[in-house]
Amino acid sequence: MKPNARAKKPARGFALERFVPYRLSVLTNIVSRTFGRLYGERFGLSIPEWRVMAVLGRFAPLSASDVCTRTAMDKVRVSRAVEKLRRSSLVEHAVDARDRRRSRLRLSAAGQRMHDAIVPMGLAAEALLLDGLSAAEKRTLERLLTRLTERAMAIAPAALDPSSPDPGDT
Hints:
By secondary structure, the chain is mainly alpha-helical. It has helices at about 20-45, 45-60, 65-70, 75-85, 110-130, 135-155, and strands at about 90-95, 105. Helix 1 (about 20-45) crosses helix 5 (about 110-130) and helix 3 crosses helix 4 (about 75-85).
């Protein structure tokens, strides 16, 4: 066997560093880790736990499936985060009056206080991240993110289905 027989050349024209899914994944990982350190060190929260709290802080009450949909996280990750937040008395659940098989989640008073302490930190970090963009670029970025999200949901609705496995990093 030749020494380079196993090495395959990448597809012609494919440059990973320009591949949008890869770039978005790298950016997301960098931003998530940076922001995660902010609230992780001070409040002891993981990234999934904060995402659950953030969604509940904005849209509660929600079922766990609703949290999965709003965060695009898989059921297992949401379930673990919710369980830890419940054990820490940051999230409460109640049986849904319309469908007794479902529970509705919301932040507890302590969870709301923590959420309210973290949000200004997140907004300050976001401002620092976006500081290098002009006002017009920020508006364009907002429009493009909205359009890309809508398009991604249209072409891959199963990706946001809570029963679908988490695809991991692209």
